[in-house]
Structures are given as C-alpha cells and as structure tokens.
Design goal:
pyridoxal phosphate; binds pyridoxal-5'-phosphate; 30% helix; alpha/beta; 8-stranded parallel beta sheet; ornithine decarboxylase activity
Amino acid sequence: MSGYLDELEFMMMEEGFTTRDLLENLLMEVSQTSDKGAFFVADLGDVVKKHLRFLKALPHVKPFYAVKCNSSEGVVRTLAALGAGFDCANKTEIALVQSIGVPPDKIIYTNPCKQISQIKYAASHGVQLMAFDNEVELRKVARSHPRARMVLCIATDNPRSSAFLSVKFGATLKSCRHLLETAKEMNVEIVGISFHVGNGCLDLQAFPRSIADARLVFEMGAELGYKMNLLDIGGGFPGTENSKVRFEEIAATINSALDLYFPEGCGVEIIAKPGRYYVASAFTLAVNVIDKQEVPLDPPGSDDEESGSKKNILYCINDGIYGSFSCIFFDRTCPSPVLHKKPSPHHPLFSSSLRGPPCDGKDCIADGLELPELQVGDWLTFENMGAYTIAASSSFNGYQLPQIKYIMSREAVRLLHGKLPLPEEEDRESMCTPLSCGWEITDTLCITPVFTPARIT
Ligand code: PLP
C-alpha cells in the first residue's frame, strides 16, 4: 500500500455497519448542536470495490482515474494505494497527485489544450505522457517538452452522452494523417491513440466504434513508420446501479472489440480514464432545511376551481447548484432526496421544490417532488453524489465545501494494508460486498454500531 493512506483520517466501520447507520448517528449528533452545515459521507470501501470490479470486467485495461471528477483527498489516496494511475487535466491536478507520492509514470496529462507554462511544469516534473488533437499543440510541445510521449486524441461519434466531449475535443479521422506527418517533421514522439466516448455514455456501440477507429489510426501511423504501443479508451462508464446500461455490459463490448482489433500479445498497452465510475456511488450528501415558504401552485388569475387550495412548498437547503449540486448543470439530472425522518404513511404529501441558499433565483435543485411537510432543521440526504459535484462547485457567495467524512470497512482497510491478498480473479466479486459500507448490507447484522477514528500506519 506504500503509505498513501498514512495521512488520511477516516472512520473504520465494523462489518455490517452501513453508511445509513453512520448517517443516522451523525445526524443525531449534529442535531444536538447549532452547526447544521451540509456534509458528505464518503465510503472509500465502495471505491475499493469498484476497483476490483473494474479489474475483473476489463482484465486487460489499466485504470487511470480522472482526477477532475472528484479530487478529494480520500479518493485520490485510496486509488493510489490500489495502484491506479491518474488522468490529470492541468498543473494543479498533477501537483495534487505528486504531492502524495504518485510517480510520474502513473500520470497522463490529458488536456489537449495546455498552457505552455503547464507543459513546462509537466516536463520539469517528469510527466511525459500527454494528449493532443491539433497542430498548434504539437508545436507548443515540440518547443517546451522534447521528451513528451504524445497520445493523439481522436473524436468520437456519440451524441448519446450526457456530456458529449467531441463537440470540443478530438481530431477527426481525416486530419489524423496530417497530424502524424507534422509530428514526424517536428520530431515529436507519438506513442498512442486515445478517445473519450462522452460522460454518461448510453450507446453500447460507442466503445467498439471508437476502438475500430483507433485501429485505423494505428495503421495510418504504421504506414508512416510509427510504432505506437498505447491505446487509451477514456472514460464514460456509469457510476451507479440505476444507470440504463450496466458497467459489465459496456465492458463486454469493449473486450470483444479489443479481441478483434488489439488482441492480447499485439504489443499495445490498454489504459482507461474512468472518473464517474469510481466515485459516484461512494458519496452521500446530507443537507439541512434552512427556510421554507408556501406558494400557490396555480398562477394568479387561474380559473381552476380549486385554485388556492393546492400549494407548493419551497424549501431552501444549505447547499445548491453553485456548490455540490453543480452536477445538475453537468449531468442534466434531477437529484432526489431521501428523508431522514421517516414520515408516517398517513401524512399528506405536498408538491415541493428545493432551492439552494437564497442568493440567486436560478439556484433550483428540484421541482415537483411529492414530500410530506418538512420543517426548518430537518435533514435530507442525497445518494450517488460523488461525481462532478464537489469538483465543479464554486465559492460563489461565500459557499464553503461541505465537510467530507471518510469511512471504510475494516475488510477494505485490511486489503489496502496488505493483510489480505488481492483476491484471485474469480473470487473478486464475492469479496466485494464486505469492502463497502454500502446500503445493500443488511442492517440487522450489527446492533451496536462501532466506528473508530482511524489512520492507517
Ligand atoms: N478523461 C477525460 C479526458 C475527460 O475529459 C473526462 C471527463 O470529462 C474523463 C476522462 C472522465 O470521464 P467520466 O467521468 O465520464 O468517466
């Protein structure tokens, strides 16, 4: 594990004690105090579990975690301890992963539009693997980083993603020959091809199509005398179980395409840059209701007979779209809350809306929810809040990032500490459950919750 987790404070959870149990305890504790700030519970065992699942489903692919998705310390340290590589988009992310001891050969600098000073920073910090998709970038790299090993990023054809990246990045197949020729003239080393099918990709054919395109560019390169040896299949994998397409289904299509176009023994190393996949389900956000008002559901002047009898309750909570709910912009999703106080089935439900702290009318988190009436001081929790939430939040209006409380099951800690052997491939799936403190573990197993503040030393 080589000490990556030495500095991290987290709560060690006994088997059977779930994230939900911990939240219940924490919410009870904070309810006694005046500080009712929003906070995250991050289950690092879930990240460990995802890693094992990745290795099982894509045995020939090495993961390089996309730091931009969630750069929180616990995630980065856990993945470093697991031996993952890192996809960094800029100097700040490179500095972050290097500050905990990640070696430069475990880093790929993937932003195809890099500031010259940051290319020089990568050069002086030993980071050689970098992406490009245009001639200007090649010129900058030729001048500022002669030892760079460049990966040509190709465009994908997949608008069925929540964020379709090829609108902005990626060379067209037509321009690839020219770019490869230009790189030769400039003496820039090209070692491979990359693509990204887009975030939240639902098209099962997207990966096979892009892998086939990458093969074409490998052949183009071979004609020009290149000996490329790296294929980067990017990110875009789902991070939660409620995704329309399962990770394993996508992995199966990738494996078939790799068998066809880049079979084992062909001398090409395959990497991927998953972001959302690793972190989405590990984070649960707890927020507090800080204000409420009733507004008529029907607009004034409406001739609906029952006009005035229907109401919408507008709740203001202490995190919003400029904070952890920035994922609403990114993913175009509508997060739905879990109520902390379980309502009785007899309580009437009201049309309800959630707004962020009152500083901007656009801070709208959800509309049209059917909720029992809540009170100021009540808690709501949101699951699956790890991807593009904290990472994309801002300090607008003095927002502060919610505190993150890290937890890990004792089993996951043992595994990371090297006290358990990494499970053999066929056993990995069965190993997974106790690693996470996830909701799915039955809460009857542990009557007295035990959690110990921990550091691994
Ligand atoms: N790699 C690159 C270059 C990206 O731009 C992104 C996200 O935008 C990722 C990886 C991670 O994508 P995802 O979170 O969909 O896996």
